[in-house]
Design goal:
Bound molecules: adenosine-5'-diphosphate, magnesium ion
CATH architecture of the largest domain: 2-Layer Sandwich
Helix content: 40-55%
Radius of gyration: 29 Å
Low-confidence stretches: 1-6
Strand content: 5-15%
Oligomer: single chain
Number of helices: 28
Distance between the termini: 50 Å
Largest sheet: 9 strands, mixed
């Protein structure tokens, strides 16, 4: 073969090799390749160091300095082999996003000389300059010291050229300044009490893990159009915009084919996600135009949550490459479905049992019922706290907005299980159970698996629904850090399970049989928590009325929902469970209020800006054209005939004035209200003022803006319309 031909062939082969891209490699080959996961550690570490880190992952045990050094070195070498030049502690401050501060591995050690260095102490603990993260008054900026500490249970990963190490973020005085630390504590509680309760049924259970499978909804908007909408850029939400002629009535987007450009985008972020060990499996269109969903296989809660945050980050970064912008906001467009992040939750044992999965015999079904009924009771007792867990300015636009769960917390379990619980409740007997009653109960309990097989009712309107082998908390917002919802859900379930165990043990101590003791306690819980169960349409007005009759809360907005954090019993619950101290809880309340105020403040400002600097000038410009035209007709045809010919123009001129004037007045009033609100001292008062006096004016202002949008010449309209934003492929 001539050398020139060989060169040509080499070139082709080389090109082909380069083309062995994401699509041609098998997922099994690249899944998790950018993470320093446990198997990788086994390869890279001495047996001893491996066992130390394994135990830290599984039981939260301490990693001593010597082994930390070994792990750090192995981690660094692995990261450098992946092209990393920097490392960062990756943490979840209460701003809602993730934070990182990058440091280089290399260290100069003389003229022209450097070494790559990363030791145990840098892995285990760092002190970022954290003064600008929200702390709710825990640290004042004079002693702005907080530190990040390694969370070995979540694998380190490389993104781009940076090694990221998942960490918790705490004040020097020990208080949590992030979402991860309370979550880890809440999980430890629920996992330990669930393990204890499993002993009633199965001595082989030594470990229980709470599991989370989230479903992330989002919108994709073309970058150029996004950039022409200051409101989307500043708030992630269109504060103005007339509903398009075609919305989602036809339901033709849902599960329809995904446009090619979107598929390419999805493929790329999924590839990157899979390399990071995020098990994304599902993608589909959502109900609204240009709305999509991505869901992974469920994982242990802490890891699933890290993965969700990572994925949101990837989605935003990779979208830019495809000339898209991702909107994660809960309600980017009025009148069009909003976005949520369903949190599917369950408990799984070390021997592979899903504790919310009905079993094959009465015994395993009693176990199922135990966890099922206790969860319902936990929701009943703590519905307001669960509502507070999902409160945010964005979610306020979505909850109760007729296609999202209402702000009223209730539990859906399906008609079959409802009947089952009702039957169980009715068979309550005082004193000892008769043999017949026992047999009947056993029969009833034994029926659960068949029941679930033909359980076809899937209620989509419930905020908290049982879906066959897990609960689905649907009211979580699409921008949320799931840790907030998961910390609270796992804390209330843990607290309830503890109470349950105390009661059952007391009954057993008095000589009752274990199964009977459990059943009786369950019957009590079923009866007590009955009113939280609701099988009907959660979107309807009748439910609001019915819920009120039942005495269920309807905390309609964020400031009111956040008040729950100030309740004495909530403070006691978090203290008792060791999840949040009173100081930490108060700080969180404060930070959430501040986040809320800032969000509404920015929305109000952008609304004023768009009204005064975009919409009103465009409307007046069009009105001037109409005036010229009408005047021209009068000049040409004389007063009477001219005016008659310009009839529509004259009407439009007046209508434009009416809306311009009304909008301008309302904007001025809103600015006044904002000024008043800003003068208030306490964050709570300010949040209430922003909610009741500032945000309350948004709809009125939007109404006039949207009217003007359909009057003014399309050519003159300064903002891309919803039709363009939502239907551009
Ligand atoms: P849907 O109809 O809501 O899409 P799926 O059955 O597809 O329901 O599951 C939705 C989510 O539930 C997925 O993310 C999945 O991983 C998660 N899931 C399934 N089983 C569990 C479990 N045991 N614990 C937590 N999440 C789970
Ligand atoms: Mg779902």
């Amino acid at each position: 073969m001539s050398s020139s031909r060989r060169n040509a062939l080499d070139e082709v082969l080389h090109r082909e090799a380069q083309h062995t891209t994401q699509n041609e490699r098998r997922v099994s080959v690249y899944f998790g390749e950018n993470t320093f996961h446990i198997d990788k550690m086994r390869e890279c570490l001495t047996e001893e160091a491996y066992l130390v880190v394994k135990s830290a992952i599984e039981t939260g045990s301490h990693v001593d300095r010597i082994h930390a050094d070994q792990i750090a070195t192995a981690m660094k070498d692995w990261a450098i082999s992946k092209g990393a030049t920097h490392y960062t502690h990756w943490f979840q401050p209460l701003t809602g996003s993730t934070a990182e501060k990058h440091d280089a591995f290399f260290k100069p050690v003389g003229p022209g000389k450097a070494i790559e260095r990363f030791e145990g102490d840098l892995l285990v603990q760092q002190e970022p300059d954290a003064s600008s993260f929200p702390n709710g008054g825990i640290r004042n900026t004079f002693e702005a010291r907080g530190y990040t500490a390694w969370d070995p249970s979540s694998p380190a990963f490389v993104i781009g050229k940076t090694l990221c190490i998942p960490t918790i973020f705490i004040a020097y005085t020990g208080e949590a300044l992030d979402y991860k630390m309370p979550l880890i504590k809440a999980l430890a509680n629920v996992e330990s009490i669930a393990t204890d309760i499993c002993q009633y049924f199965d001595k082989n259970v030594t470990n229980v893990k709470a599991t989370l499978g989230w479903e992330q909804e989002y919108f994709l908007i073309d970058t150029a159009l996004f950039n022409a909408r200051p409101d989307l850029m500043m708030t992630g939400r269109a504060v103005f915009g007339h509903a398009p002629a075609k919305g989602q009535q036809l339901d033709d987007h849902y599960f329809g084919s995904i446009p090619e450009r979107v598929t390419e985008y999805m493929r790329e972020f999924e590839y990157e996600a899979l390399c990071l060990g995020i098990p994304v499996t599902t993608r589909h269109n959502e109900v609204a135009p240009n709305q999509f969903e991505c869901a992974p296989m469920f994982e242990e809660v802490n890891i699933a949550n890290d993965h969700n945050l990572l994925l949101m980050d990837l989605m935003e970064k990779i979208a830019v490459k495809h000339n898209f912008r991702v909107l994660l906001h809960e309600k980017p467009f009025a009148g069009i479905n909003g976005s949520g992040k369903h949190n599917n939750w369950s408990l799984g044992t070390n021997n592979g049992i899903n504790l919310l999965q009905p079993g094959k015999n009465p015994k395993s079904n009693l176990r199922f019922l135990t966890f099922f009924v206790n969860t319902i009771k936990a929701i009943y007792d703590n519905a307001d706290l669960l509502r507070a867990a999902i409160a945010s300015a964005g979610n306020d636009h979505r909850l109760g907005a007729n296609e999202a769960p209402p702000a009223i917390i209730s539990v859906f379990i399906g008609s079959q299980l409802t009947k089952m619980l009702n039957d169980l409740e009715e068979s309550i007997t005082a004193g000892k159970m008769t043999p017949e009653a026992k047999t009947e109960l056993k029969l009833n309990i034994g029926k659960i698996p068949q029941i679930l097989l033909d359980n076809t009712d899937r209620n989509r309107t419930s905020p908290f629904a049982f879906t066959g082998n897990k609960f689905e908390f649907r009211a979580v917002g699409s921008t949320a850090n799931c840790a907030q919802a998961m910390t609270i859900l796992n804390t209330i379930v843990a607290s309830q399970l503890r109470k349950f165990k105390v009661e059952v043990d007391a009954k057993i101590a008095k000589g009752e049989k274990k199964d009977e003791a459990i059943l009786k306690e369950l019957q009590k819980l079923i009866a007590e928590s009955k009113t939280i169960r609701f099988e009907g349409n959660g979107y309807g007005e009748e439910w609001r009325v019915e819920a009120e009759r039942r005495g269920l809360s309807n905390l309609v907005d964020t400031p009111r929902a956040l008040d729950v954090f100030a309740r004495k019993e909530v403070e006691e619950l978090f203290s008792e469970m060791g999840v949040l101290s009173p100081v930490e809880l108060e700080a969180r309340h404060e930070i959430e209020l501040e986040n809320y105020i800032l969000k509404i403040q920015i929305e109000a400002r952008i609304m004023g800006d768009l009204a005064k600097n975009h919409i009103i000038p465009a409307s007046i410009a069009y009105q001037n054209i109409l005036i010229q035209n009408a005047q021209g007709l009068v000049d040409l045809l004389g007063e009477k005939e001219g005016k008659e010919s310009a009839k529509s123009q004259l009407e439009l001129i007046k209508a434009i004035s009416k809306h311009v004037n009304a909008m301008n007045e309302k904007v001025d009033l809103m600015i006044e209200e904002r000024k008043k609100a800003n003068k208030l001292e306490s964050a709570r008062d300010m949040a209430y003022a922003y909610c009741d006096n500032v945000k309350a004016m948004f709809d009125g202002i939007k109404y006039h803006g949207d009217k003007l949008e359909i009057m003014v010449d399309d050519e003159l309209w300064p903002l891309p319309k919803l039709r363009e934003l939502l239907f551009t492929k």
